[in-house]
Each structure stands twice: as C-alpha cells, then as structure tokens.
Write a structure and sequence with these properties.
There is one protein chain. By secondary structure, the chain is an alpha+beta fold. It is built from 6 helices and 4 strands. It has a 4-stranded mixed beta sheet with strand order 2-1-3-4, sandwiched between helices. It is globular, with a radius of gyration of 14 Å.
C-alpha cells in the first residue's frame, strides 16, 4: 500500500505536514480532501485501523462543524451516521490524514510523525 497524504491545499497545517514528509524522504501520494473525499468504506476501515475514537476524526475547529452545531448533535448520532456525515463533506474531517500500511496519523503533531518515521526506518 502506498502512503497517502489526504489534505486540503490551502490548509497551513497540511502544508507543514507535506513539507515534513518531503524533508524526511517519506514517499507519498497526495489526495485533496474536498475533491476526493474519503468514502464511507475507506473511513470505516481507517477509523478501525487508527484505534481512535471517531470523534477524533472530526475537524472540531472547522466552520462547517460549528455551522452544523455538531458539538451538540454528535453525542446523539449513531456510529454509522457519524461515518456517513464525515464522508459527505471533506471539510468535516480533521486534516491532514496520513494513511500507511503501518499507521494512520490524524492531524499534524510532529512528535507523532517522527515516531512513525523512526519505527518504519
């Protein structure tokens, strides 16, 4: 499986992640989170692989999240409804996402990315 960086090109954090990958010689393919939003099937697989609560997958600081009042709505929603909601709009998904056969990184915390790099090299 190829490494995939799922990002929004205008996002400064995504740019930092991309630069970090390039500086650390990590091969990856880019995927725009808006034009190629992850599917329900991809999200279900990745959420499970990440061992993270689905709540971590939401871009809680995004305008869309606030617009839809998801802080109030999410606790009442089923897991399936949450996955379908994420798949409906890439701007609801926390970014960047780094998907590899060994790990899934949500957001850009340099220490986590460095740990991944140490463990795979």
């Amino acid at each position: 499986m190829e490494n995939i960086l799922i990002e929004y090109p205008k996002c400064s954090t995504c740019k930092k992640a991309k630069k970090w990958l390039e500086e650390n010689n990590v091969q990856f393919i880019q995927r725009n989170i808006v034009t190629q939003t992850p599917t329900t099937q991809e999200l279900e697989k990745w959420i499970q692989q990440s061992n993270q609560n689905i709540k971590k997958w939401f871009n809680t600081s995004g305008l869309k999240y606030k617009e839809l009042n998801l802080k109030e709505k999410l606790p009442q929603m089923s897991y399936q409804e949450k996955v379908e909601l994420l798949a409906s709009d890439g701007m609801l998904i926390k970014r960047p996402l780094f998907i590899s056969s060994k790990t899934i990184l949500i957001g850009f915390k340099e220490a986590d990315w460095e740990k991944y790099n140490r463990e795979t090299n």
